[in-house]
Structures are given as C-alpha cells and as structure tokens.
Amino acid sequence: MSRNKEVDMLDFIYQNSQMGVASLNEILPMVEEGKFKESLRSQLKGYKDIHEKAKNHLNKAGYDEKGIHAMQKMMTYLMIDVKMMADSSPSHVAKMLIQGSNMGIIDAQKRIHEYKGEANPEALKLMKHLQEFEEKNVERLKEYL
Known about the structure:
mainly alpha, Ferritin, globular
C-alpha cells in the first residue's frame, strides 16, 4: 500500500502534535506554578488529544505513525533549554510558543488547501481542528506577552 496525501496529512498532524507535547513537557518543569502554568497544562492536554486522534486514524487506515526524528527532538530540546536559560519569564515562553503555533497554523492551512479533495473528510476535519487549536493557543498566549 503506498502512502497517499491523506496519510501524509495525518502524519503531519501526528508530528505537529508530538512536537507540541514534547516541547511543553520540556518547558513545564521550568515554569513557576500559577495561571500561566495551568494554561500550558491545558494546551498540553489538547496536543495529547490531537496526537492520539491522529495515531488512531493512521492505525485504522492500516499505517504506522511516523514520529519526529530523534535528532529533530534533541535539537528542539536544546533550543528550548538555551532560550529558557536566558529568560524563563511567561512573556518569553509565550513568545516562543506563539512562534511555534504560528508555524503550525501556516503549515496546517497550506496542507488543507493542498489536500482538499484528496484526503477524506475525517482527516481534513482533524487538520482544521489542529489549526483552530493552534489559533486559540496564540490568542490565549498573547495575554502573557
């Protein structure tokens, strides 16, 4: 069975949400307890939910999910650690996360247009859900800038 655009889309959703989970798991221990940390925990829960849904869609279609490469994860962790050592204020963390979410929004929108008519409605619906989730994250994080 060859990989098709629907599977590529689901892999993107899987990897994007995996990066969100991994990044927040790296950041959360460095953030002080309070409203901001609770907001990040809520965001983490949302990424985990999307991640699980993408995995289930892929598995149901007969595919194994393609996770993020170990090197990419390591580079992300290193970048987060360096940036957090310099400044772990809510404003700085919010800025970092907004930048990541904005990249996710752009990539999701691009793929929605690219795969429209070629991916099943469930995959498109999950991609739109990811995009809307990222947009809400940006709006919530702006309060901490």
